[in-house]
Specification:
alpha/beta; six-stranded mixed beta sheet; 11 helices; 12 strands; 46% helix; binds beta-D-fucofuranose
């Protein structure tokens, strides 16, 4: 009895080993390695983006190599160069700034490693340097912020004095959220951008810049146009410390629509939050696998987004994912 059982078990184990060996070989054929260079950890948006990429990789069976560039282009270039040396299958990165990528992307091209941009675009005429860009339309986001201002102040003769907290200098979202706003308000002289400065997409940066704006312009300020929620939250702190009432006597326009931004809307301190989704991980994994399988990808895999108003924030907040 015991012996039969023992033999049966051994046979079963052997069969299982064979199955797992052949499955393993098959899976190894398909396993692709993706080298990803992240911008940094400057904002809640970025933290959610990193989390999305890291959790999507194992779920998709992608071997992910991840590096945080601490908001420095030189670190991203180093990371990309090391991914080339490691002969990864696909390189993806979220470019901290728009310009200066041609030389390193030429190296990737020479090594025949396809490149995917995520979140932020680059400024280049050479379309062969990357396969696709997965992310938002920042210009449209800027227009949406501008349209909200137009609508909100349609019966007001002005002047409407705007202070702008810009994102990282030279980054696509900072350039485009600015340009989108200008495009909408440029023909209406009552809107004036009286000051514009970078807070580098961080809460501390937003607070510091807003402290200076509050000192210099005081109650001349009608609107704070902050390129992300973290800077808006920092600016709110600065305004409150200066005895101002953000969301009431000063309207606050922000971007991302993170949970922190939503909470500030619920508290009446941000008036409108233009959505920008960081949850790009699953799309990035899919695109990497498609590329490895020789499929053709669209040049731009665009994120679907909307605009959230203060009045709806409490109701929508529980459904927010980042
Ligand atoms: O808006 C900001 C982050 O590139 C869209 O970067 C991203 C921006 C986002 O630091 O919070």
């Amino acid at each position: 009895m015991v012996d039969v059982k023992g033999r049966g078990l051994r046979a079963l184990v052997a069969a299982a080993l064979m199955v797992s060996a052949s499955f393993g070989a098959h899976a190894a054929d398909k396993l692709i390695t993706l080298g990803f260079s992240q911008v940094g950890a400057e904002s809640a948006w970025r933290t959610a983006n990193t989390e999305s990429v890291k959790s999507a990789a194992p779920a998709a069976g992608v071997n992910l190599k991840f590096a945080d560039a601490q908001q420095k282009q030189e670190n991203q270039i180093k990371a990309i160069r090391s991914y080339i040396a490691q002969k990864v299958d696909v390189i993806a990165f979220s470019p901290v700034v728009e310009s200066g990528w041609e030389p390193i992307l030429q190296e990737a091209k020479a090594a025949k490693i396809p490149v995917i941009l995520t979140d932020r675009n680059i400024d280049t005429k050479d379309t062969s340097l990357y396969v696709t860009m997965i992310g938002s339309d920042f210009l449209e986001e800027g227009r949406r912020g501008g349209k909200w201002l137009e609508e909100t102040y349609k019966d007001d003769k002005g002047p409407i004095n705007i202070v702008e907290l810009q994102g990282t200098v030279g980054s696509a979202p900072a350039n485009d959220r600015h340009a989108g706003l200008i495009e909408v308000i440029k023909n209406d002289p009552k809107f004036k951008i009286i000051a514009s400065q970078s807070g580098d997409f961080t809460l501390a940066g937003g607070k510091q810049v807003m402290e200076a704006f509050a000192k210099t312009y005081g109650n001349k300020i009608n609107v704070v146009y902050a390129h992300n929620d973290d800077m808006a939250l920092g600016a709110i702190q600065a305004m409150e410390e200066a005895g101002m009432h953000p969301g009431k006597d000063i309207k606050v326009v922000s971007f991302d629509a993170t949970k922190g931004g939503f909470q500030a809307m619920v508290d009446g301190k941000i008036n409108v939050d233009v959505e920008c989704s960081p949850l790009l991980g699953p799309q990035l994994m899919q695109a990497s696998k498609d590329l490895a399988a020789g499929k053709t990808l669209p040049r731009w895999i665009k994120t679907d987004e909307t605009v959230f108003l203060q009045a709806d924030a409490a109701k929508i907040m529980p459904t927010r994912k980042y």
